[in-house]
Amino acid sequence: MCAKRKNYLMKRMNLLVIGMLISSQLLLAGGLVTNTNGSAAWVRTLSRNATLGVDAVYFNPAGLAHMSNGLHLSLSNQSIFQTRTITSNYNYLAGTPVTYEAELVAPFFPSIYAAYKMDKWTFSAGFNIIGGGGSADYPTGLPSFEIPVASLVPILQGSLAPIDAGFVGAGQPDPFFRNVTGYNMNASFKGSSNYFGYQVGATYAINDMISVAVGGRLVTASNSYEGELSGVTIDAPAAYGGTQTPGDYLRFVATVPGIDAPTQGLLNGTAAALDAATADASLNATQSGMGFTPIIGVNLHLSDMINIAARYEHQTKIELTNETEVDDVGMFPDGEKVRADLPGMFALGVQVSPINKLTATAGFNYFLDKPAYYG
Q1: Pairing between β-strand 281-301 and β-strand 319-327 as defined by DSSP bridges
Q2: Which of 90, 100, 213, 235: disulfide with 61, CB 3.0–4.6 Å?
């Protein structure tokens, strides 16, 4: 096996970690990493950006000016259960297409809001899960775990075919070293992600129509990763030992009479590389960090029938610190810091109430993903 193919295999094995990172993004509703389902009331309309209810603490802080004087409280919870399915059509997977399923579980997804109105001024505070908010368990791993292992089969077939051809060309029986027919492995992955938001703000009514708000949100982030890839073997010809590690198989081929010294050296060197690439690997790591989000808003109460609101949230710069117990893949060095921002966003909403018992709403969220750094 040439050095180029060995390097290719090593890079493919490192996709295990990429799969872990992708799976950690346990998104529930909103942008790439931002949840916008900020209250149970959101489930009813899917659009709360122009609300004048107490959950306006999150959705429309400038709209709090139109509440009655006094204290307003809201406590709600959403229980979220999803089946996350990934299907891969990679040609060399056993039984392709292969489906990988995980149950995404978030039984507690609370939002807590409070506002105190004093004539023109309203002061507010809130808590919600602004990103992540659940865990996902893939008991058979992910495509990025299995694809590098499945690729061993065609790589070994292609690399051993010239050796078989050499025996045939020398007038000897075809040894069929290339008859590698399958692979075996054990894999699992579990990830969780929680971005908690603690928000405060102040709202001022300029007049009966226009009100403005300013505030901020402290975001504390916590991610966890647990993964395992073990028991990687190939199904070699029964005459040569059958199921075994790819490294052991190449070392066996190197001992067959008729293999010249340079080929023996290449086979043994490749076997050592495969031992490292297919060794059992585990990961158990967490990440934590925090950031701050400035928020401004404006509300236009055109009439009791029509309300229009806009909100801008600045990009939240978050630097996560690795806390690693096991890292066989070498991608989460203990104590290393990585960026995982929440993007800035612009939210616009319209609420129309033509009659008391009928309300129509529309909302628009624009996420400023390009300036944000997701790692």
Answers
A1: antiparallel
A2: 213
